[in-house]
Amino acid sequence: MHSFEEIAQRARVVDLPMIKFRGITHREAMLIEGPKGWAEWSPFLEYETPEAATWLKCALEVAFEGVPKPKRDKVEVNGTVPAVPARDVENIVARFPGVNTVKVKVAEKGQSLADDVERVAEVRRLMPKALIRVDANRGWSVEQAIEAAQKLGPLEYMEQPCQTVEELEQVRPYAPVAADESIRKASDPLQVRGRVDYAILKCQPMGGPTNVLKVERDLGLRVTVSSALETGVGMYACLATAAAQDVQPAAGLGTGSFFYEDVAEPRRIVDGQLVVTPVTPTNFPPCANEDFWYRRLKDCVDYLQSKS
User: Fold this and answer.
1) Alpha carbon separation from 160 to 30, 51, 221, 246 (Å, rounded)
2) Which of 70, 88, 165, 189 ranks highest by number of CB atoms within 10 Å?
3) How far apart are CA 208 and CA 210, in angstroms?
């Protein structure tokens, strides 16, 4: 286990402005330069130490051990539409040229199913041949999820429509279901095996690319590798992981287009794909919360050392 002092000496903290997504308009991250290149640690600010420490394991793996060997040099990605009014959808999907799959955020607090139906319908109007996924982030009851399945039209899958695995099973007869939080926030990530149709795996929340690929094998499900709103640095680990899959469904890794400013030259989606290339950051927008991040790093290193 690397010491706090060693990691801190290699770290830079940044704060990047972005369009409103997941309720935030700025993304704070710690970038760590290791012998294998740059890595990212960016647990959301509200996360407690045990969860943030899992995210740190990912950064340490990437910085000190490297990423998996890719099986392809490009990764197909999906478009992502936040919970915006239908009138704003066209400007959003324009950020994802050539994609054949679109994920639409639904079940936003303060919005209605009618808002979701309008948003999805607008995506269908603009991209009639696209596969559509919706992501409810556990926002529906079983009854609400079933009603949504009946009103939203054909879906590739509903991502985490409800809180529990038992509830996900009840929704499956009405639409294919993907598990996200029921994997990455569970003590047993394999509890969903045979109970859902797809798995959503994210490098930082799963503790690193190696564990993502292991859990994929153990689950025996089709896996969408997705982002946790990483900067360009963290996105490289995600892309390399998706590129190491035997079968690679459209990955949820196009969210770099949501940043107004990134730590390096932005990756461009071309024909619905992103090139798998490492990033050396050249832009370090200062973070007013820097002291918090170093205190958090110390807490997480101490936590991991106590568990080793």
Assistant:
1) 28, 19, 15, 24
2) 189
3) 6
Same-domain check for residues 152 and 291: no
Q: Return the half-sphere exposure (C-beta side, CA atoms, 13 A cut-off) of residue 222.
A: 13
Q: Does residue 125 sit in the same domain as residue 182?
A: yes
pLDDT tens-digit readout, 200-229 = 999 999 999 999 999 999 999 999 999 999
Q: Using an 8 Å Cβ cutoff, are 303 and 5 in contact? A: no
Summarised one tens digit per residue, pLDDT across range 278-307 is 999 999 999 999 999 999 999 999 999 999
Q: What is the pTM of this model?
A: 0.95
Decide if pLDDT at 71 tops 90.
yes
**How many other C-beta atoms are found inside a 10 Å radius of the C-beta of residue 295?**
10
Amino acid at 6: E
Question: Which active-site residues does the annotation give?
Answer: 105, 202
Token pair of 286 as six digits? 């200062």
The answer to whether residue 280 sits within a structural domain is: no
| Cα–Cα separations (whole angstroms), residue 114 to 23, 111, 120, 182 | 20, 8, 10, 26
Mean pLDDT computed over 243-264: 96
Domain limits at 160?
A: 74-275
Residue listed under structure tokens 């089709």: 222
